[in-house]
Amino acid sequence: MDIVRIPLGGWIEGGLNWLTSEYSVVTRGISGITQTGIDGLNDALMWLPEWALMAIIVALCWRASSVRLAIGAAAGLALIWNMGLWDPMIETLTLVVIATLVAVVIALPVGIAAALSERLYRTIMPLLDFMQTMPAFVYLIPAIPFFGIGSVSAIFATVIFSMPPAIRFTTLGIRQVPVDLIEAADAYGATRGQKLFKVQLPLSLPTLMAGINQTIMLALSMVVIAAMIGADGLGSEVWRAIQRLRPGDGFEAGIAVVILAMLLDRLTQSLRK
């Protein structure tokens, strides 16, 4: 007995085709602005000599965390420089920074709204579950018809992939603020905005920073995968090594990704504390 197949894939493809045709002007505008931001930040970081940027990062690690992290950052960055992967590392860092900033700017208001509205909370949580269980490679598919091949598509896919943790942790942090503190603010006549900005957000800041940390880690992993659709950086070095069957080059690029991930993780954890 033949089962009637639901044409879900056809519906999705048709919807994407309609969106790309109807909103092509908007996507081209977003693409141009995003590409300008990528090029600007990338050129600014590459304008600095390697030793100068390394000194800035080491000083930031020492100031924000400890001498141990500063020494580790210096050793790791020196190894990346020695392997000839400094420019790809800068390109990866640029994509991660821009994608994280966009994801956080979108996620914070959504998380705050979900924390303050029970109806929105119940609506958005299943959607976040869906977004976090969807395989990462799937996000690359709609990025291409919207923005084409390149770094802008990588930013789009990375923002969608890395945004759920920031929304979840923002909502969690605000909802975990003790009720007695909220009642005390009400007793003193605080408005809704005063309660949010002077009580709820400051008390939930450690949880918010944990969400930002997770967003950065997911953004880094997605930027590496996005080399499949033309994104520059360390991911493209790994992808090129796979295509040319050069395991040594692939492992060098992978080690550089690990060093960058550890540096970003330790730095954001230090800022959280």
UniProtKB/TrEMBL annotation:
It is found in: Cell membrane. Residues 89-268 form the ABC transmembrane type-1 domain. SUPFAM superfamilies: MetI-like. It is a multi-pass membrane protein. InterPro entries: MetI-like, MetI-like_sf. Keywords: Cell membrane, Membrane, Transmembrane, Transmembrane helix, Transport. Its main location: membrane. It holds the Pfam family BPD_transp_1. The chain crosses the membrane at residues 51-81, 93-116, 136-161, 208-231. The keyword Transmembrane applies. Belongs to the binding-protein-dependent transport system permease family. This is Proline/glycine betaine ABC transporter permease. It comes from Halomonas cibimaris.
